[in-house]
Amino acid sequence: MQKRDRFRGIAAYVHASHAALALASFAAPVVALALEASVVPGLAFLVALFAGIVAVGGALAVAVDFAPWHRLTRPFAAPRRRALLSIAVVVAALVVVLLLPSSGGAVGVAVIPLAWALRAVADGSFWSGIARMFAAALGCGLVTALTSAWTGEAWNSLGLAVAVLLAFGLLGQDSIYTLAIELDDLRALEADRAVATERKRLAGDLHDIQGQHLGLITVEAELVTKLIASGDTAGAAAHARRLQAIAGDALDELHRVVHDTRAVTLDQELTNAARVLEAAGITVARNIDRIDFLPETADRLFGLTVREAITNILKHSRTRDCTIQVRCEARAGNDGIVLTVTDSGPAAAHAVRTRGTGLTMLRERYRDAGGECTFVSGPGAELTAWVPMTGGGSR
Measured between alpha carbons, how far is 275 from 62 in angstroms, rounded to an integer? Predict the structure, then answer.
C-alpha cells in the first residue's frame, strides 16, 4: 500500500502500535514466568517458543495486509498461505493460553498474545475480518472451556473478552488508516480524470475551430493564387481581406475556448456552412424541419457536427453539392432529432475521413449524450447524427 507524506504520522502510529503489541506478545508471558517463584524449565521454554511464534507470525500476517508486494511478505500473500499462517498464530496463542494457568498468577498476560493472534487472523475487508476474528475467538473459548472442564483448572473467561476488545480496537484503527489512504487515492484518481476530461474537451474544441478555419483559409488562399495568376488583382485583394478576417475570427474563437465562453449553435453553424461552402463553389441545400424544442446539448452537438462535416468536405471531398437535413425521428421508442449531411464526392476522396480524430470525438460525444453518430461513404458520403429529445432549451 502506497503511503503519502501527509499520512506519515498516522502510519508511524499504526505501525508502532503493531510493533508494541507484537513485542508484548512475546515479552509479557516470558517475563511473567520469570517472576514466578518456581517454574518448570520445560514449561518456560514452551511458553517462550509459542509466544515467539505468535509475535513473529502475527507481525508477518499483519504486514501482508499492508504490504503484500514486499519481498518479505510476498511468499505469504497467497490466500492459502495467508490462511495457514493465521491458523498457526491462533494455535500458538491458544497453546500459550493453556500453558500459563499452571503458573498461577501469570494467567492475565495471556490476553496480550491472544489479542495479537486475533488481530492477525482478521484479514480481508473490515466485516470479513470481524467475522474471522469472532470465529477464532469462539473457537479459542470452546477449546479453553473443554480443557478447563477436563483438567479441572478454571481459566478466567474475562480474559478472552478483553483480548477480543483489544483486537477489535486494533482492527478499527487499521481500517480507518486504510480507508483514509483509499479515499486519498480515489480523490487523486478523480482529479486526474477531471484533468483528462478537460484536456479532451479542449482538444475537441481546438479541432472544431482550427479544422474549419484552416480549411476555409486553404480555399481562400487557392482563390487568391488563381486570381493573381489571372491578373485579377482587385478580386485577389478582396479574397485576401476575407482571408485576414477568417484568421481574425479563428484567433477570437481560440481566445474564447481558452476562457470557456465560446458558444456553438446549430443555427450559427448552418449559416456559416452555407457561407463557407458557397465561397468554395459548392451548392448547399438545407431541409430543416420546424422543431419547437431543441435541447441545449443537441443544439451544441449538431453545431459541432455541421462544423466537422463542412471541414471534412472542404479538406477531403471534391463534391459540387451538399445537403443538410434536420428532422424529428424516434429510435428504440425514444423521440429524438436526427441531423444528416450528405455530399456527392467520389468514393476515393472519403477514404481518409473515416479514420479522422474529429469523427472519433464526435462519436464519443454522442455516446455520452445517449445518441449515436455514423459515417457512411461510397459514391458520395453521409454523416448522420441522432440525439434523444431530453433536456431543455428552445429554438
Answer: 71
Q: Are 334 and 351 in contact (CB under 8 A)?
A: no
Average pLDDT value for residue range 139-151: 83
Q: What is the mean pLDDT of residues 46-53?
A: 91
Alpha helices in 265-390 (DSSP H): 266-279, 296-316, 357-368
Report residue 68 as a C-alpha cell: 503484500
Cell of 356: 479522422
Q: Cα–Cα distance between 67 and 64 in angstroms, integer?
A: 5
Rounded Cα distance, 177 and 187, in Å: 15
> Would you state the cell numbers that stand for residue 32, as one nine-digit string?
511473567
Count of Cβ atoms closer than 10 Å to residue 353 Cβ: 21
Residue 80 has pLDDT above 50, yes or no: yes
What are the tens digits of pLDDT across the range 308-327? 888 888 777 778 889 999 99
- Residue where the block lists cell 483528462: 196
Query: Pairing relation of β-strands 380-388 and 283-288?
Result: unpaired
State percent of the chain over pLDDT 90. Answer: 16
Distance CA 259, CA 243 (A): 25
Give the separation between CA 322 and CA 277, rounded to whole angstroms. Answer: 8
Helix or strand (DSSP H, E) at 229 = helix 158-230
* pLDDT score recorded for residue 5: 57
Closest alpha carbon to 113 in 66, 59, 70: 59
User: Which residue matches cell numbers 484503527?
Assistant: 173
Rounded to whole angstroms, what are the CA distances from 47 to 5, 86, 99, 145, 373?
Answer: 40, 19, 7, 20, 74
Can you spell out the DSSP letters for 55-122? Answer: HHHHHHHHHHHH-TTSTTTGGG-SHHHHHHHHHHHHHHHHHHHHHGGGGGGGGGGGHHHHHHHHHHH-
How many C-beta neighbours within 10 Å does residue 167 have? 27
pLDDT confidence of residue 268: 84
